Amino acid sequence: MNYQWSWSAFYDVSSDGISTYAHNLLCGAGWTVATALVSAVIALFEGVTVGLLRVSTNRLRQRAGAVYVELFRDIPLLVQIFIWYFVVPELLPSALGTWIKALEYGSFVTASISIGLYTAARVAEQTRAAITAMPKGQLMAGLALGLTRAEVFRLIILPQAFRLMIPPLTSELVNLVKNTSIGMTIGLMELTARAREMQETTFHTFEAFSAATAGYLLINLVLIGTIRVFAVGRKNRKEQATRSLPVQEVLP
């Protein structure tokens, strides 16, 4: 294959006649990061909440959590984005639907919500698995000390469960970053969309998608590094707190 590489294409003026392709790719990376951050916040809060429903002693809450997980986990993300973007506004009252469709950043909002709710179903199962992995004696001991069930979960169970969740949650957040590329199907000009735009106008396919690949790799490496720093810092603080506890002498 006689392909002519040209890295200088990044400094050519893009099809909008104003900015360069390098600038557009950086803007696309910014939208990727913004979408990932909003989606991650939604996924973590919604996922932990649904995970708690899954381990509730109330049958109705358990079933509600199970329905949420099966509904959002079993439907492809692309289909969910299309439903939120094209179908839901039509089902709402006309004034509200028109307002939603006229939002300046409608594609960003839709992509963030869709990816967040989809990922929340997977985070919920990780939360449920981490909680059920805890020894049942801890719950019983907390209740015996006079704590309510909610206090036992908040003070004892969840802090330990979150430590167990760090490895699978890291992988899930990495997948979330990659899933933001689906946002281009509804007009979100994130990193993949900008790379495709450059490829279609300059025909420098390898350069465009090499830059996108490097961008996703860099974003995810920063994400993984941040989580590791947080996990190590939390572990060190716990060890320091343990060492600072006074040791009582045992009298003979």
TrEMBL record:
The keyword rRNA processing does not apply. Its main location: membrane. The chain crosses the membrane at residues 29-53, 65-87, 208-231. GO terms for cellular component: ATP-binding cassette (ABC) transporter complex. InterPro entries: AA_ABC_transptr_permease_3TM (IPR010065), ArtM/GltK/GlnP/TcyL/YhdX-like (IPR043429), MetI-like (IPR000515), MetI-like_sf (IPR035906). It is found in: Cell inner membrane; Cell membrane. One of its GO terms (biological process) is amino acid transport. Keywords: Cell membrane, Membrane, Transmembrane, Transmembrane helix, Transport. Pfam families: BPD_transp_1. It is a multi-pass membrane protein. Residues 29-227 form the ABC transmembrane type-1 domain. One of its GO terms (molecular function) is transmembrane transporter activity. SUPFAM superfamilies: MetI-like (SSF161098). Belongs to the binding-protein-dependent transport system permease family. HisMQ subfamily. This is Polar amino acid ABC transporter inner membrane subunit. It comes from Caballeronia udeis.
